[in-house]
């Protein structure tokens, strides 16, 4: 196992993003179409937040237990904006941060994805799944 491997070697580089003016319905469609769990939210090329699929489930969970799920999702999603639901105080790393350092951050925090930012521009995203796949390759 390489001890100083940069996170850039395992991160997703072609990142699917949302803008703050996108709707939560658009976000849900992207999550499902691409089978992903985290989407960085950007203004231009700068990251301003992270939306997770769990964030969407959290806002629609209570109502969905009693009603038609599709109808509730539309109603609840129209009540909130992406900026209201997304995580805002993000931890980020740069492309040269080691995989070990990223693993240490994720092991101590309650989130599962970290944006990779160089010169204030989003260049990638690394998730716990990326780390697990990296470990599997080592064996």
UniProtKB/TrEMBL annotation:
InterPro entries: CBS_dom, CBS_dom_sf, Diverse_CBS-Domain. Pfam families: CBS (PF00571). Keywords: CBS domain. Signal peptide: none annotated. Residues 11-69, 86-139 form the CBS domain. This is CBS domain-containing protein. It comes from Bizionia saleffrena. The lineage of its organism: Bacteria, Pseudomonadati, Bacteroidota, Flavobacteriia, Flavobacteriales.
